[in-house]
Design brief:
Keywords: Ribonucleoprotein, Ribosomal protein
Order of helices and strands: HHH
Helix content: over 70%
Pfam family, one: Ribosomal_L29
Radius of gyration: 16 Å
Shape: elongated
Strand content: under 5%
Number of helices: 3
Family: Belongs to the universal ribosomal protein uL29 family.
InterPro entries: Ribosomal_protein_uL29, Ribosomal_uL29, Ribosomal_uL29_CS, Ribosomal_uL29_sf
Protein name: Large ribosomal subunit protein uL29
């Protein structure tokens, strides 16, 4: 499984980004839970999920800051 490209995520709308952020946080929680209960997990999944989560959070922050700056220019 290759790491997600930011260009692919930029095509998503704000609601889809928010939904994916929640979903990835749940997946990370489940992976940590599996690891704590000594179930078999693939360690690379942590990296992939954290990487994608970071990209989505960055996109969300960029969009919020651009919306804020657009509102300030309008006033």
């Amino acid at each position: 499984m290759a790491l997600t490209k930011i260009a692919d995520l930029r095509e998503l709308d704000d609601q889809a980004i928010a939904d994916q952020i929640v979903d990835l946080k749940k997946q990370l929680f489940n992976l940590r839970f599996q690891k704590a209960t000594r179930q078999e997990v693939k360690p690379h999944q942590f990296k992939h999920l954290r990487h994608t989560l970071a990209q989505l959070l960055t996109l969300e922050q960029e969009r919020q800051s651009s919306a804020t700056s657009a509102n300030e220019e309008g006033n």
